[in-house]
Amino acid sequence: MKQEISPKINLETLSQFIIDAYNSSPKKEKGTIQLILKHGNETIFCNFIADGKTVTFSYGELINFDVRLTASLYDWLDLANNKINPAWGVITKKLRFEGDTKTFDKVIKKELLYKTNTDISDPPRKFELNPIKKWKRPEKIMVINGSPRGRNGYTFHYLNRFVKGLEKSGTSIEIVELSEKNINPCIGCFHCWKNNTGKCIQNDDVNTLYEIYNNSDLIVYAFTLYWDTVPGILKNFIERAFCFEYPFMIPGVFKTRHPRREKKDKTFFIFSVCGFPEQSHFDSVKHYFKNVSHNAHIPFIGGIYRSACMFLPNDPMYYKTYNLVLDSIQKAGESILNTGRIDKNIIKKIETKIEPKEFQLHANKYWENVILKKEYFIKSV
Fold this sequence. Notes:
By secondary structure, the protein is an alpha/beta fold. It is about 35% helix and about 20% strand. The protein has 14 helices and 12 strands. The radius of gyration is 30 Å and the shape is elongated.
């Protein structure tokens, strides 16, 4: 169980930052600082003593000091973090100094407190911001089927046509069935970060799969929409990518993210189906993958979203629509391969609207037969 942070633990953590900053400074001066800090009903006496070589932190009251500060613990933290001006702190009576206040700048190198020596730069690239502008036909494609039903599910039933479209140029395509793999959830142990290895401590199929992932130019995430988000096995796979980033924090395109270990240009594409008739059911996964794309530094070039996926192949009245959707999905695969985008007319055909009231009527009759008669109108694909 995580320990609650006490005032003294907090001060000791800050003191280590101050010691590291002093030690990394090219010019080390001498000085003694006495702090009298109030927190609730407690008064903490502590001090920093710099001898020109190093600085030490300890508890206790000093008789001799260069400067003494009396303040609340919170006001001291604000002072150390440059959030309170010393002069204004004195005027507002938040801070009370005795002695030479210049000693603070000599001993506590604020500009060095959070300085890192590691190269953590990984700014957004032109490819990430506009991958279509200089689109190159991907040489290696990884298609990840995240449906728990694998090749027996509706995801693969529709996805198969998309893959046929991708295959027309002879591009190398690796189809991975996550249902056949052993993929544990990320346990948040930080082993891959603490040891700076980028390797997960868990011994399952993820490391092997991510070798394929890292060498691919296009990643296709395919899945059935379960309860407004991706199936659990796919979520586990995505979150295990934790290993392939450094722990440092850097500016992203629109929010903070981590720098990558593998800096290869690639793109994301989403292929999703659901049982409901309205396209709005995909809104949550679109938002989710917008964030996954950003955090992975991998541009999201679009998606295919087909609602009423069970309805079309199982209702004879919609056989024409069913075939129109399949043919359009195959054309979409060809288009993505060659241009990195799908024509709006193809998307319109893939997303051919089914009226919700009509859908509910037909779907309920279908399920009545499944439940009550224990048989299907047409065998489920």
